[in-house]
Write a structure and sequence with these properties.
The model has no long low-confidence stretch (mean pLDDT 83). This protein has 2 domains: 139 residues, 3-Layer(aba) Sandwich (Rossmann fold), CATH 3.40.50; 102 residues, Beta Barrel (OB fold (Dihydrolipoamide Acetyltransferase, E2P)), CATH 2.40.50. It starts with a strand and ends with a helix. Strand 4, helix 4 and strand 5 form a beta-alpha-beta unit. The chain is α/β, with parallel strands linked by helices.
Length: 253
């Protein structure tokens, strides 16, 4: 019997490599025959190699993973890869669709591999109705205002996906921004202006031209000189400067 084959489609090179590496450990017989960077490339490579399994990132440039899955249909077993949010987990769980969550954990991937291997050769669940519904939900979600949920940060040779809720504050230095979260610190290539436009304004506020703070992590505000002030953070020793341009934020609270 020939070895099973797989396609991995994700726009993050390091995440593709991590998934490929973990699959080599958890499913040694599986051959990853192609890796795609976007939806159109995934479809082209699928047609070329016809793998038995397709790991598809939900949010890919060009054509999203749900649409790619609809085009593949029952020609392969499908596994969606998604950054965690409530929508994704609830939607996939309701549809009984195989999915794994970023950052990929070996034990969670092991469960998916066991399900894939347990299926009879050539047995592919009929997911067309589920995919149609997921596509409609994804389209409706895209039409609604959406705020940043994850921060992708390089930590050494790895890409760390940091849930925005865990971020305490952002502090910029020219083109780079320091992300301080519950698990440590990392540097990203996003400006404070870009972050301010992408974050939920009900949760995050710019308090200085170089600083954005998670309001849920602020314990108190203290007035200072020159009509400015500072905020103290819950459970932390840092005090962040609030420039006078942003003091009115705390006067309204």
């Amino acid at each position: 019997m020939s070895a099973p084959t797989a396609l991995i489609a994700d726009d993050e090179p390091l995440l593709r490599e991590r998934l490929s590496s973990l699959l080599a450990q958890l499913w040694p017989e599986l051959r990853v025959v192609a890796q795609a960077r976007n939806g159109p490339e995934a479809l082209a490579l699928f047609e070329q190699f016809r793998p038995q399994v397709a790991f598809l990132d939900v949010h890919m440039p060009g054509t999203n993973g749900i649409e790619v899955a609809r085009r593949i249909g029952d020609a392969a077993q499908l596994v969606f890869v998604t950054a965690y949010d409530r929508y994704a987990v609830e939607a996939f769980a309701r549809g009984a669709v195989d999915y794994i969550v970023k950052p990929i954990e070996p034990e969670r991937l092991r469960e998916t591999v066991q399900r894939l291997r347990a299926r009879a050769p050539g047995a592919v669940p009929d997911l067309q109705a589920t995919l149609e519904r997921l596509a409609a939900e994804l389209q409706g979600r895209a039409a609604a205002p959406s705020h940043l949920q994850w921060i992708k940060a390089s930590v050494g040779s790895n890409v760390r996906l940091i849930p925005v809720d865990e971020v305490v504050y952002f502090k910029s230095d020219n083109k780079y921004t320091l992300v301080v979260w519950d698990g440590g610190e990392a540097v990203i290539r996003k400006t404070i202006r870009e972050l301010a436009d992408a974050l939920d304004p009900q949760q995050f506020a710019q308090i200085h031209r170089s600083t954005i703070v998670n309001l849920r992590r602020v314990s108190q505000f203290t007035h200072g000189r020159d009509d400015g002030g500072e905020v103290q953070l819950k459970g932390r020793g840092e005090r962040l400067v609030v420039s006078r341009s942003y003091v009115q934020l705390f006067q309204r609270m």
